[in-house]
Design brief:
This protein is mainly alpha-helical and 71 residues long. It has three helices and two strands; from the N terminus they run E-H-E-H-H. It has helices spanning 13-20, 41-48, 54-61; strands at 5-6, 26-27. Strands 1-2 form a two-stranded parallel ribbon. Strand 1 (5-6), helix 1 and strand 2 form a beta-alpha-beta unit. It starts with a strand and ends in a 10-residue tail after the last helix.
Length: 71
């Protein structure tokens, strides 16, 4: 509950969640503009999340990082 994991833009996060659970752990982050950050990290994640529940997308892009970056 106190751990958050960011994923590279090329990782199939939705598959990790299907295999291992932990949908409350993964969160969006990027290393853009460095090479490992990709050219369009947000677009890459969004493309992979097509068909993934909106509740998980909300957690991945917003809610799960709130522990790290409280508003």
């Amino acid at each position: 509950r106190n751990t958050r994991i960011s994923a590279f833009h090329f990782e199939p996060v939705h598959q990790y969640v299907e295999m291992y659970g932990l949908e409350d752990v993964y969160c969006y982050a990027t290393d853009y503009p460095h090479n490992e950050g990709g050219k369009d990290p947000l677009g890459s994640h969004l493309a992979r999340f097509e068909g993934v529940s909106e509740s998980f997308q909300e957690k991945f892009f917003v809610k799960n990082a709130e522990l790290l970056l409280p508003g």
